[in-house]
Specification:
Shape of chain B: globular
Strand content of chain B: under 5%
Oligomer: heterodimer
Radius of gyration of chain B: 18 Å
Number of helices of chain A: 31
Helix content of chain A: over 70%
Radius of gyration of chain A: 40 Å
Structural class of chain B: mainly alpha
Helix content of chain B: 55-70%
Number of strands of chain B: 4
Strand order of the largest sheet of chain A: 1-2
Shape of chain A: globular
Distance between the termini of chain A: 26 Å
Number of helices of chain B: 11
Order of helices and strands of chain B: HHEHHHEHHEHHEHH
Number of strands of chain A: 4
């Protein structure tokens, strides 16, 4: 019966090819064939399989031939074939992933001993067809069949389900292409599209992927046109075309974006030499560079350029002119280096900006822009840092850290980026030691030697570190105070050292204290990873302490100046009127109608401008920090490397291997340096708009200099740490720094009144008054009203409350999700255990059945010739299973390999179908032949 | 296979882009490197023998280089030679944007030294030997080896059949924080 039906199928196919009928007709044909196929498969399900095998084999062969001959027409046929094969498992909700797993299992069932299953899977379909014809023996053919099923099922499973349903519709109305059918077809096309888009995520060889892609493309193109009629058809076609164009554009844009990322090659080179941990520093540096570029763009485009182009020019008013007293040496390099002289009275600093509300023909609101850019800088930084942290946290996956200690060491410890033999050797050594350490730890986890001594040493170490921190804090405070005294006395009378004491002391502390900490931490005897974290924490505390002492000292100074200013303001204003009056008096006598006297703005007395002073301090700090970094790099790395390299020829011990040796690249220290540098930028950017620009320059130079230094004078680390583990740790530090550095800036903005004669906010009692001013004068009256209503406490407080509640709600939901994850994990584990039990039972039963079968076999030898093939293959399979089990050795659980329960990867995250459902067919498949026999 | 990147057809290029995790530039670069490997011999060959592939600096010091070639090779002789498409498959699986799924799949096949679909004791032993390098002093003693393997099986072998299969492997790998970042090869 199969034969006949199959013939009609082929006939219809031939017709189809010959006549090239309309699409509708074709569709009908396909449906009819599918019905045939369905009947056939259902018949097979009833157990006729065994008798019909030879016939099917022949049929298959023919079909293969047909397919090879026809090419294009073969596609439909193949689908149908797939249907034949896979009707047995019509579980609708299978995701592709699950099918793949099933596939894996079946392979294990089918060909346990032939290790080249994978290779065979890779071979093209046509080759397989050819082989099949050559092989006469039923056993191998059956195996191939299975494999075939396995292969094709995963490929077409998704679309096939759709077809199944579609077919039912077809049975009802075979003549017209009803809307439902259209819908189905559309779904199918969509399915294909989905397949196309997910194809790259499939672990298939390229040839197969290409074939599938082309097939799917063909299919989509063929049937896409059939969708929609008349107008809607055109529209649909247009939509599809646009979609294609859009996809192409997106891809090109992606390509463009990746092409725009700078320093890719440099970083890659470093990656291959030093592994991913050193490279992670450079990636971080590049990320920082990107952020600073944007900050720079903001300040440069919205503050500095407008003021320089449209504001009043240099020399037009006192705040934009170098005072007469300093004019003589305002252009000296030493003065400029300190950002005094002309540098101080330029767009680089706060004091230069005018408080004029709107400037230029654009009516650019300068003070408002200045304020908003300041706020925007901080807001943008927060956004970026938090977004990155969230993304990292997603990638981290979280979860149990200790449960897979050994497995992770084993499976994930090799860094595939390493391309340098020396680094590879180091990596080998570090992996070996980590293995040994882990084993030792495992053995000695119970007994620990002299815990009291260790504890004492650790407490001592922490005490020493605290002393260091306190000492450095006091030193900085002392130095800043002293510098204030010097400043009051006048800088000219002091030496270079006394003038630059603060910055130098801070830089030196930052350089030497970490070394001291390193020595101290040797006392503690921690595990290297923990020791690294302690070290980072201590350096962090040191830098933070230093920065804050500096700021507190600066704050003192500001308060001093502000008080001074207030007193001075009155005096000064009085003075100025007297002074002007005296000028007038002088000239009054000569000509009373003379034009108003113009006094050169350099001569007009002015008050101290504390904002500019703060900005200058920060700029100086950054510059000296940068210099120290570069000089340490040159001396500590380059000079050391040169000395070691060349003195080694005439030295009494081996310098390269012995004491000085080459330096290693200190990832954590460098990252911390970068973070603190960024903190200073955030802190000072409001008072010195040039800071982001300066930082961009610094980072740019750093990139090249450090890349060069790393490649030419550093050796790979002995312990190659992984990068990603501490990634969010650094980010968290950045966030803390961001918060801590915006704190003083915001404090000064909110509480301290701006100077009366310099900066964009002069004449206002507080800096943020500029907002109110804008609201009043630039917006219609109703807006101001609305704003004032919106900002009254009655509305703000509930809003704040709402936000707090929202945060609380989100927090608790995330907690409950975590809980759910845990539960799912537990469920998974219990499911696994149950599965194990079940498979054990199944295996036992199968073994018993087998024994009985063998008994029967021996009693009535060669009775059932036609059953031979299946039986043999079955026993064969069993034997293979047995062999496999024997091969596995020690384990006393007799589980056939087919039943190894898969703990779906990430199963606890995606609540997909539980493993129990997946493999249940497996035991039944095994038992089928037996039940037939009895 | 052509000698210059321009000989890579436009259609083919876009298909490759669709099928791999690589960008256009990366595919072009891969093609260039691949043709360089070919250029010394006669150019009619479509596949590069394994020794040539192993001479790439990116693979030179990788202890799994031979396994990588074998896993990605589709040649019938099983000599580990790579065609350009195999080469692209390799780069795609090791690229930055490849998914954890595909990375772990290939990692499993790389670690599965005897190609039997599971990681058994023998596979793990070979794996450890690969990781600890060739020299004598970095090798583990048999006792340590035994301990290590039993520990690993204890952790990862969830169904306790004495081997680690693909799903168990993926289960373990998916929680690892640095697998995706280190399972990378960039040309």
């Amino acid at each position: 019966m199969f034969q006949n039906e199959e013939d009609t199928v082929i006939d219809s196919d031939g017709r189809q090819e010959r006549a090239k009928e309309k699409e509708r007709k074709k569709e009908r044909d396909r449906k009819r064939r599918r019905n045939v196929a369905r009947r056939a498969s259902s018949a097979r399900k009833e157990g006729k399989e065994l008798e019909d095998r030879p016939g099917r084999e022949e049929r298959r062969g023919r079909k293969k031939r047909d397919k090879e001959g026809k090419g294009k027409g073969g596609e439909d046929e193949r689908q149908e074939e797939v249907k034949n094969d896979t009707v047995a498992k019509t579980q609708k909700n299978f995701s592709n992933e699950n099918t793949r797993k099933l596939e894996q299992k079946e392979i294990e069932v089918v060909g346990e001993e032939d290790g080249d299953t994978e290779e065979k899977r890779k071979n093209g379909r046509s080759e397989k067809g050819g082989k099949k014809e050559e092989n006469g023996r039923g056993e191998t053919v059956e195996k191939k069949q299975k494999k075939k099923r396995v292969e094709t099922s995963a490929e077409h499973e998704s679309s096939e389900e759709e077809e199944d349903e579609e077919e039912k519709v077809g049975e009802e109305k075979p003549e017209v292409l009803s809307p439902e059918e259209l819908e189905k077809l559309k779904e199918e096309v969509d399915e294909r599209k989905k397949l196309i888009s997910t194809l790259r995520g499939k672990p298939w060889p390229m040839r197969k992927k290409l074939l599938t892609l082309r097939e799917s493309h063909e299919f989509v193109e063929k049937y896409e046109g059939a969708l929609g009629k008349g107008k809607s058809r055109k529209l649909y076609a247009y939509k599809v075309m646009m979609l294609k164009k859009w996809m192409k554009f997106q891809r090109d844009f992606e390509n463009f974006k990746t092409a725009c990322v700078p320093w890719e090659m440099k970083i890659k080179e470093i990656e291959s030499h030093f592994g991913s941990s050193v490279a992670s520093y450079f990636i971080f540096l590049r990320w920082m560079y990107g952020i600073n570029m944007i900050l720079f763009g903001l300040t440069f485009g919205l503050v500095m350029v407008p003021e320089a182009l449209m504001g009043r020019p240099y020399g037009s008013m006192p705040r934009k002119t170098v005072p007469r007293a300093d004019e003589a040496n305002a252009m000296d390099f030493a003065v400029l280096w300190d950002f005094g002289g002309y540098a101080q009275y330029s767009v680089l600093f706060y004091g230069y900006y005018n408080s004029q509300r709107a400037i230029g023909w654009l009516k650019f609101r300068m003070p408002l822009s200045y304020f908003l850019v300041g706020v925007g800088t901080v807001a943008y930084s927060y956004m970026v840092v938090i977004r990155t942290m969230a993304r990292n946290a997603n990638e981290d996956g979280g979860g149990d850290n200790n449960s897979f200690n050994f497995s992770w060491k084993m499976f994930t410890s090799w860094d595939y980026l390493i391309g340098n033999p020396e680094t590879a050797d180091n990596k080998f050594a570090s992996i070996t030691t980590s293995f040994k350490e882990a084993i030792l730890e495992e053995q000695e986890s119970r007994k620990d030697d002299n815990i009291h001594l260790t504890r004492f040493l650790r407490v001592l170490a922490n005490f020493l570190v605290l002393c260091c921190l306190a000492g450095s804090g006091y030193l900085i405070y002392f130095v800043v105070r002293r510098s204030q005294k010097f400043a009051l006395e006048g800088l000219e009378s002091h030496s270079w050292w006394e003038r630059n004491e603060v910055n130098m002391v801070m830089s030196l502390l930052g350089m030497f204290c970490p070394m001291l900490f390193d020595v101290i931490s040797a006392l503690e005897n921690y595990h290297p990873r923990i020791a690294l974290q302690w070290q980072l924490g201590r350096i962090f505390a040191l830098f933070l302490g230093n920065l804050y002492t500096f700021i507190i000292a600066l704050m003192d100074e500001i308060n001093l100046k502000v008080n001074l200013e207030r007193e001075e303001e009155e005096v000064l204003k009085l003075n100025m009127t007297i002074w002007e009056a005296s000028l007038y008096n002088g000239t009054l006598g000569v000509n009373s109608t003379a034009p108003p006297i113009t006094v050169h703005p350099a001569d007009i007395p002015r008050g101290p401008c504390w904002e500019t002073m703060v900005g200058q301090e920060f700029v100086r700090l950054i510059v000296s920090d940068t210099m120290t970094t570069y000089i340490t790099l040159l001396i500590g790395d380059f000079l050391r490397a040169v000395l070691v390299r060349f003195l080694n020829y005439c030295w009494c011990w081996d310098l390269e291997a012995g004491f000085p040796s080459y330096s290693e690249f200190d990832v954590s220290g460098n990252v911390l340096g970068l973070i603190f540098n960024q903190g200073m930028i955030w802190m000072g950017a409001f008072y010195a708009p040039c800071l982001p620009a300066l930082n961009v320059l610094r980072l740019h130079v750093s990139m090249y200099l450090q890349c060069w230094a790393v490649m030419c004078c550093n050796v790979p680390q002995e312990r190659v740490f992984k990068a990603s583990g501490s990634n969010n740790f650094y980010m968290a530090m950045l966030l803390v720094i961001l918060f801590l550095s915006t704190l003083p800036a915001i404090y000064t903005i909110v509480t301290i009144p701006p100077s009366f004669d310099c900066g964009p906010f002069s004449g206002k009692s507080r800096m943020f008054d500029v907002i109110q001013e804008t609201l009043e004068s630039d917006f219609p009256a109703w807006f101001g009203k609305v704003f004032s209503y919106a900002s009254n406490p009655g509305l703000v407080l509930p809003f704040l409350l709402l936000m707090v509640l929202a945060i609380y709600y989100l927090q608790s939901t995330s907690k409950s999700y975590k809980q759910a994850n845990l539960e799912l994990k537990k469920k998974l584990q219990t499911q696994n255990e149950e599965n194990k039990k079940k498979t054990k039972m199944a295996a036992l039963k199968a073994a018993m059945d087998l024994e009985e079968a063998q008994k029967a076999w021996s009693e009535a030898p060669r009775q059932q010739r036609n059953n031979n093939a299946s039986q043999q293959s079955y026993t064969d399979r069993e034997k293979k299973g047995g062999e496999h089990r024997a091969h596995q050795g020690k384990s006393d659980h007799q589980i056939p390999p087919s039943a190894t329960s898969p703990p779906a990867p990430r199963g606890h995250r995606i609540p997909g179908p539980l493993p129990g459902n997946q493999w249940q067919p497996a035991p039944s498949v095994q038992r089928v032949p037996n039940s037939q026999r009895h | 296979m052509g000698t210059t990147a321009s000989q890579l057809g436009k259609d083919l290029l876009s298909e490759y882009q669709e099928l791999t995790f690589l960008t256009k530039q990366e595919i072009m670069l891969a093609h260039k490197r691949f043709s360089e490997l070919l250029s010394k011999e006669d150019r009619n060959l479509t596949s590069v023998p394994m020794e040539k592939v192993l001479s790439l600096p990116e693979l030179k010091s990788n202890p799994f280089r031979k396994r990588i070639c074998h896993v990605f090779s589709t040649s019938d002789m099983k000599d580990g030679s790579l065609t350009f498409e195999d080469f692209l498959d390799l780069l795609s699986a090791f690229s930055d944007s490849a998914t954890l799924e595909i990375k772990s799949h290939y990692a499993f096949r790389i670690f599965d030294f005897d190609d039997d679909g599971t990681l058994d004791g023998g596979d793990l032993e070979k794996l450890v030997n690969c990781l600890t390098g060739e020299t004598e002093d970095t090798r583990l003693t048999p006792e340590e080896m035994r301990q290590l393997i039993s520990n690993i099986l204890e952790e990862s072998d969830i169904d306790k059949d004495g081997t680690v299969n693909l799903s168990e492997f993926q289960h373990v790998i998916s929680r690892s924080p640095d697998f995706v970042s280190s399972f990378k090869i960039v040309l």
